[in-house]
């Protein structure tokens, strides 16, 4: 079931800061840190699962399976990238129901043409606003719980300009979206203008090295944003750490020079992955098995 806490936080005008997670190690680490939500990133999940670019290659089946694994493995509500809804109106209905059944709490659907592209890369094209509005109406009707949030994203800013992106945001709000996501504004002034014109909770995509400036949470909140995701911070950091660790291993021929601050201990990783429960189970049932009568020889 979707977590009611996200809808409650929006109703209470709270700010939701969500780190990007892309596999179960990143999800488990973030899940224990007290965030109000986690963002299951399409870029990161596609990269970690398939080793491919976020360019419409991953299918609904690929993504709902991975998103469900993340959602079921965490106690924190998960906001999940669902690309374009994976096709037409019937596909959108199927995607919404599938993601909700998988345990996700909020789904992000965008107005790009199929195949879609990552929001901070060039060459994105969008469908007519009215066609996207129908997708949103279908998504709202398809959900079983009001606690399952529909986030409507437009990628029109880059190719059609800010005015058109704001116009679409207003249309999507009227169609019933719970949260509006104007992708890739190019300055803090543009972000503020979005906040002045759209009177719905807003969604900010903070990508290190992307098209949009990284704005602190307090300023985002003051502009009307209620959710900020940092989708790339996890996989960018992990890739850098692995490059360093693997490079040192190759250079030295061993891992003895890895500093204690550079990596988890093996014991800590075992704890993160739930091994203490396995060991307790094994101990309990080994004792029970030891009390069974011996088989006759």
From TrEMBL:
Identify a single GO molecular function assigned to this protein.
lyase activity
Q: Which PANTHER family match?
A: CARBOXYVINYL-CARBOXYPHOSPHONATE PHOSPHORYLMUTASE, CHLOROPLASTIC (PTHR42905:SF5), PHOSPHOENOLPYRUVATE CARBOXYLASE (PTHR42905)
Task: Please indicate which superkingdom the organism of origin belongs to.
Answer: Bacteria
**InterPro entries membership:** ICL/PEPM (IPR039556), Pyrv/PenolPyrv_kinase-like_dom (IPR015813), Pyrv_kinase-like_dom_sf (IPR040442)
Q: What is the lineage of its organism?
A: Bacteria, Pseudomonadati, Pseudomonadota, Alphaproteobacteria, Acetobacterales
Indicate what this protein is called per its UniProt record: Isocitrate lyase/PEP mutase family protein
Mind telling me which CDD domains this protein's record contains? ICL_PEPM
Q: Which UniProt keywords apply?
A: Lyase
């Amino acid at each position: 079931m979707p977590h009611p806490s996200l809808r409650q936080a929006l109703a209470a005008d709270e700010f939701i800061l969500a780190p990007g997670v892309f596999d179960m190690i990143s999800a488990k680490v973030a899940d224990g840190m007290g965030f109000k939500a986690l963002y299951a990133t399409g870029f990161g999940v596609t990269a970690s699962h398939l080793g491919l670019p976020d360019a419409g290659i991953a299918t609904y089946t690929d993504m709902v399976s991975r998103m469900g694994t993340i959602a079921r493995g965490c106690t924190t509500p998960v906001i999940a990238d669902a690309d374009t809804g994976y096709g037409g109106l019937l596909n959108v209905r199927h995607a919404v129901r599938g993601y909700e059944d998988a345990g996700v709490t909020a789904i992000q659907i965008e107005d790009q043409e199929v195949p879609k592209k990552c929001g901070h890369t060039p060459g994105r094209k969008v469908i007519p606003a009215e066609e996207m509005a129908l997708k949103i109406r279908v998504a709202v009707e398809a959900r079983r719980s009001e606690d399952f949030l529909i986030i409507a994203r437009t990628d029109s800013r880059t190719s059609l300009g800010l005015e058109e992106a704001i116009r679409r945001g207003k249309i999507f709000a009227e169609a019933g979206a719970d949260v509006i996501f104007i992708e890739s504004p190019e300055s803090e002034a543009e972000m503020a203008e979005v906040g002045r014109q759209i009177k719905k909770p807003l969604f900010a995509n903070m990508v290190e090295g992307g098209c949009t400036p990284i704005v602190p949470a307090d300023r985002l909140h003051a502009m009307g944003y209620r959710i900020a995701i940092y989708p790339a911070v996890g996989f960018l950091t992990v890739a850098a750490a692995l490059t360093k660790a693997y490079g040192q291993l190759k250079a030295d021929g061993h891992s003895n020079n890895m500093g204690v601050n550079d990596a988890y201990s093996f014991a800590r990783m075992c704890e993160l992955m739930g091994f203490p429960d396995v060991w307790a189970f094994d101990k309990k049932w080994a004792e029970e098995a030891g009390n069974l009568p011996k088989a006759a020889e």
